[in-house]
Design brief:
The protein is of the alpha/beta class and about 500 residues long. The protein has two domains: about 10-145 and about 345-495, FAD/NAD(P)-binding domain, CATH 3.50.50.60; about 160-340, no CATH class. The protein is about 30% helix and about 20% strand. The protein contains 13 helices and 23 strands. The chain starts with 7 loop residues before the first strand and ends with a helix.
């Protein structure tokens, strides 16, 4: 029985990986709790429904980008967008989640009312505004702005060809025989270039600076072998931990011995490119894992370069001319289509206007609590995945933690859980994200705070976080539990 008079015990915003993961955890761990999911798009999937550019795929393995509770059954560990959507659709159907999702519902505001222990959530649907209430608000809204990608400030007025941003890829774009210039060298560019190279006349990846890249097979041989001889769930669990360990070791090795890691990455690329290898093109001005490494599955980018279907050009853009991109050194790169793969723009809390008893919440003034809640903001949680590992690893442990909090609240008769931080806290802040990536550096001013130690730290170590959240008590002396005197609460109290 709910301890509030809210419409829902839990309201989940977003039906992507994070939101679906939370819904699945509620079904498993809190089956008696009422919940609903509001999704702004007309279908589920989040990122995997939004991005439709050629070759769209995961940039990490699906044994860790997949959920802990749902084995990845496909042969390919590096999966394309449609396969990931199939995985998510199967989960919502098999676990009874689909009828809890309401589509075309964009949440625009959420206000916590302390006297009711309810979030009042305003959303737009069919051009009209509606309101619902929930005791707990869980944001699975991702980390970037769905409406506005990063604008690099290019003047494209003189260019007479097509200009496309990957976030808004046009349906049925015909690029056969066209000269395509992809501006950027991140994960999106590295995916698009080889995917377009089979039909385009030539695809050029135009990079201002190189990005560290590593290649690996799209199929995980060990995972597929284990599946032949072991029960599916056991095989998945072993593969998942194998990949978690490899990710962790690779990241820490890059930080402790960057020169050795550089040497190994260069060796792989050189082996793949042969006489097409040029060290300057593949040597970034930073150490590996100072920014996220780009994955090249099955050497697809390097194969396209060897076969003269694609090329990488390094230089600064001077101007876009009618049929080319002119660089500051005078070189011209011919173009019929320009793809601006220049990065994402981060957004906090899905750009929802969050308030507390009518007062706007400034997330840049709040500290993270256990990587999913915020200081002095009750019954509110989000997912911001790992930068050095798969997003879903954090989504899983956050969902599990929130479900444990909800169960503890029910056990003690509470309807409020507030990460209490006094004004004279004396916390020592640290750099929230120790990464030099442009999209991270551009957005630091809007991001919440992080301290040097738990529970007020957004950590970047999944294995540490998983153990810490599993072993630390829910009632840790920081998370304060209370029971607001709602009408429902008063009735329950009288009944007792």
């Amino acid at each position: 029985m709910s301890l509030t008079a809210c419409d829902h015990d839990v309201l989940i915003v977003g039906a992507g990986i994070s939101g679906i993961g939370m819904a699945a955890h509620l079904e498993m761990m809190c089956p008696h709790r009422s919940y609903a999911v509001l999704e702004r798009r007309s279908d589920l999937g989040g990122t995997w429904d939004l991005f439709r550019y050629p070759g769209i795929r995961s940039d990490s393995d699906m044994h860790t980008l997949g959920f802990k509770f749902e084995p990845w059954k496909h042969e390919k560990s590096i999966a394309d967008g449609p396969a990931i959507l199939d995985y998510l659709h199967r989960i919502v159907d098999e676990r009874g989640i689909r009828d809890k999702i309401t589509y075309d519902s964009k949440v625009i505001a959420a206000d916590w009312r302390a006297d009711e222990a309810c979030w009042h959530v305003t959303y737009e649907q069919d051009g009209k505004r509606a309101t619902t209430t929930a005791n707990w608000l869980y944001l699975g809204t991702g980390y970037y702005d769905y409406d506005d990608p990063y604008d690099a400030g290019f003047d494209l007025s003189q260019f007479e060809g097509q200009v496309i941003h990957p976030q808004f890829w046009p349906k049925d774009l015909d690029y056969s025989g066209k000269r395509v210039v992809v501006v950027g060298s991140g994960a999106t560019a590295v995916t698009i270039v080889p995917a377009m190279s089979d039909r385009a006349a030539k695809v050029t990846m135009l990079q201002r600076t190189p990005t560290w890249m590593f290649s690996r097979p799209a199929k995980d041989g060990i995972a597929n072998t284990l599946r032949k001889y072991l029960p599916e769930e056991l095989a998945y669990r072993i593969t998942r931990w194998k990949n978690v360990l490899l990710q962790d070791v690779a990241f820490k090795r890059a930080r402790s011995a960057p020169e050795k890691v550089k040497e190994a990455l260069h060796k792989r690329i050189k082996n793949s490119l042969g006489d097409r290898y040029d060290a300057a093109t593949w040597t970034p001005p930073y150490n590996p894992w100072d920014q996220r490494l780009c994955l090249v599955p099955d050497d697809d980018l390097f194969t396209a370069i060897r076969e003269d279907k694609a090329e990488v050009v390094t230089g600064n853009i001077a101007a876009f001319e009618k049929d080319a991109v002119r660089l500051t050194d005078g070189r011209r790169v011919p173009a019929d289509i320009v793809v601006t793969a220049t990065g994402l723009k981060l957004a906090v809390a899905g750009k929802i206007a969050v308030s507390q008893d009518g007062a706007p919440v400034e997330f840049s003034e709040r500290f993270y609590y256990k990587g999913c809640m915020f200081s002095n903001l009750p019954n509110f949680s989000v997912v911001f995945g790992y930068l050095n590992a798969s997003w879903t690893l954090r989504a899983d442990i956050n969902s599990e933690f929130v479900c444990k909090v909800l169960n503890h609240m029910e056990a003690i008769g509470a309807n409020v859980a507030d990460p209490a931080l006094p004004e004279d806290h004396g916390l020592v802040e640290e750099d929230l994200f120790d990464f030099s990536s442009g999209y991270i550096q551009r957005s630091k001013h809007i991001m919440p705070k992080s301290a040097v130690s738990l529970p007020w730290r957004l950590n970047q170590d999944y294995r540490f976080d998983r153990k810490a959240l599993a072993t630390s008590p829910i009632d840790d002396g920081v998370l304060k539990f209370d029971r607001a005197a709602t009408s429902t609460g008063q009735q329950l109290e009288a009944a007792e």
